User: Fold this.
Amino acid sequence: MDLVTLMQQLVNGLSLGSLYALIAIGYTLVYGILRLINFAHGDLIMVSAYVGVMGVGLFRWPWPAAFGLAVGLTGLMGVLLERGAYRPLRRAPRISLLISAIAASFFLENLVLVIAGGRPKPFPAPAWSAGAIEAGGLFIPRLSLVIPLTAGVLLLGLFLLVHRTQAGRAMRAIAYDLETTSLMGVNVNRIISLAFLLGSLLAGAGGLLWAMKYPQVNPFMGILPGLKAFIAAVLGGIGNLAGAVLGGLVLGLLEISIVALFPDWGGYRDALAFALLIIILLVRPTGLLGEAVAEEKL
Assistant:
């Protein structure tokens, strides 16, 4: 593999890994606070993409308005899921929360299936995302630059909020000890809703970028990227924000590298990602940057 091809694959891997990182943050935020794997998180990607299709394709809104509406409604959907499906079960056995998350995932998929139908629809990507930039024999798709830049800005904003604001300190305190934090006067319900809001907003942005990269939407489009983002969160250390970003980038680069180095294995890239999850759970269950956390007995 020559240098130009290597650089091309690095750009592709960085683009894909940035998408995984954006989505993985939602898993790690929720798990860090509630020790819950929110399996409905991947379907928020699909909700955002469909809202974008409706805004641009059906109502002919300009892209900034459709983008803002899609991300905002996805954030609202995340808060509604927390209040309707998770908050009433917060003191129930952990398995009840897990079953509720799976049920919420099926509900969203089938709701969109009934409303929009099961036939895939084209995603009207903006004109500025098409084409590529040529530099020294290297052809870089514009979208492969837009995705990492957008993800970087959004993730930087999240890290500043979590580590530099009072709400962020409360979020980290709840992740450390929910019961004690509630006794210190912190509005736990509001902070947990904020965590769901932030994770869902990032998932909404990730869903639009994913649909721009793979311009087709269907009611089940969020399943695979959602599971891949979950693998990224576990790889980096679920519950650790930096770990989610690292895991997403590593997974994206590994996938692209496998396809580039072993083209005949391209059809097995998804299977290899799940094999990686099994290996990580066997060898290092806490992930690359995670720490062991005591689990309460059910």
